[in-house]
Design brief:
By secondary structure, this protein is an alpha+beta fold. Helices cover 25% and strands 16% of the residues.
Length: 267
C-alpha cells in the first residue's frame, strides 16, 4: 500500500466537505481543519488550502513528509529547502499554484502529458483558491497557474516525471509527462509554438515559460518582477542577451525566440 496511498485515502474521504460561512464572515468561512492541527488553530476563517493539506498529512501519519503551515508560499519553501522541489509532476506531490507560488495548493493523485488530477481544499469550479469546498480537480499542467511541485519523501519512493531524478534512490521515474509542469511548461524542448506568440502586445503562457527559462539560465537580471504572461521589454532584452551569448548576431539575435533559441532554453 504505502504512505502515499494512506494520504490519498484520507484526502479522498474529505471530498465534498464544505466550509461554513455566516453572513458577514470572510469568504473562506470557518472549517474543522484548523482546530485539529496543532499550531494552526489561529488559521480558522483564513484561506485554508494549505491547512487542509497539513491536516491530511497528519491524519495519514505522514506529517513529517509535508509542511505544517497555513501558508502556500511557506509550503513551497519548505520543500525547496529540503531539495524536494520539481517542475515536473509526481504522484502524491503537493502542487503549488500561482505565478509566484503563493496562491493555492493541493495533492496530486495522478498525471499524464496534459493534465494533473488532484484533491484540493478550499476550491470550487468558480473560485480556484477560495471556493470553500474539498474537491477533486483536473487541471491543465501547462497552465501558468501551476507553479511546481513539492515531493514528499515517501518510504516506498515517489513516482515522478522529472528526468533529472531518474535512477536516484527514492524516486520512480515515469515519463508520461515529458515536459516541465505548469507556468514553466509548454510543449517540451522540441515543441516551439511559433514566433507569433512573442513580441509586443502578446500575452500567453508561452511568454511566461520563456521568461522563467531565461531566469533559470541566469538572465534574471533583466526582470525586476519576475516572468509573466505579458510580453515586456525585459523579455526582449533577456532573450537578445541569451542569443548573443550563443554567438548569434543580426536577425538571429533580435530578442524574439525562434526554434533554435527555444530548443536551447528548454533543453
Amino acid at each position: 500500500m504505502g504512505v502515499c496511498n494512506d494520504v490519498f485515502r484520507v484526502a479522498l474521504t474529505e471530498v465534498g466537505y464544505q466550509a461554513e460561512r455566516a453572513p458577514g464572515e470572510r469568504p473562506s468561512g470557518h472549517q474543522k481543519y484548523s482546530s485539529q492541527v496543532p499550531g494552526l488553530e489561529w488559521s480558522n476563517y483564513q484561506p485554508w488550502c494549505a491547512t487542509w493539506t497539513s491536516w491530511v498529512a497528519m491524519r495519514a501519519n505522514a506529517a513529517s513528509l509535508y509542511p505544517r503551515t497555513a501558508s502556500v508560499e511557506e509550503a513551497m519553501n519548505w520543500f525547496k529547502a529540503r531539495g524536494r522541489w520539481s517542475e515536473f509532476p509526481a504522484v502524491g506531490a503537493q502542487v503549488i499554484y500561482g505565478v509566484d507560488g503563493d496562491e493555492h495548493t493541493g495533492i496530486v493523485l495522478s498525471y499524464d502529458r496534459d493534465n494533473i488530477n488532484t484533491v484540493e481544499g478550499n476550491t470550487s469550479l468558480t473560485n480556484d483558491a477560495n471556493g470553500n469546498k474539498v474537491m477533486r480537480r483536473t487541471r491543465a499542467r501547462r497552465s501558468a497557474y501551476v507553479h511546481g511541485y513539492g515531493l514528499p519523501a515517501f518510504p516506498e519512493g515517489i513516482v515522478t516525471a522529472d528526468p533529472s531524478l531518474k535512477g536516484r534512490s527514492g524516486f520512480v521515474y515515469q515519463a508520461t509527462a515529458d515536459s516541465p509542469a505548469g507556468g514553466t511548461a509548454g510543449t517540451g524542448s522540441s515543441g516551439f509554438p511559433g514566433t507569433g506568440y512573442f513580441g509586443p502586445g502578446k500575452a500567453n503562457d508561452y511568454v511566461t515559460q520563456l521568461g522563467r527559462a531565461l531566469i533559470r539560465k541566469g538572465y534574471g537580471r533583466f526582470y525586476s518582477v519576475g516572468a509573466g504572461p505579458r510580453w515586456t521589454e525585459s523579455d526582449r532584452k533577456a532573450t537578445r542577451a541569451f542569443q548573443e551569448d550563443q554567438g548569434w548576431s543580426g536577425s538571429d539575435a533580435d530578442g524574439i525566440p525562434g526554434p533554435s533559441t527555444w530548443a536551447r532554453l528548454m533543453g
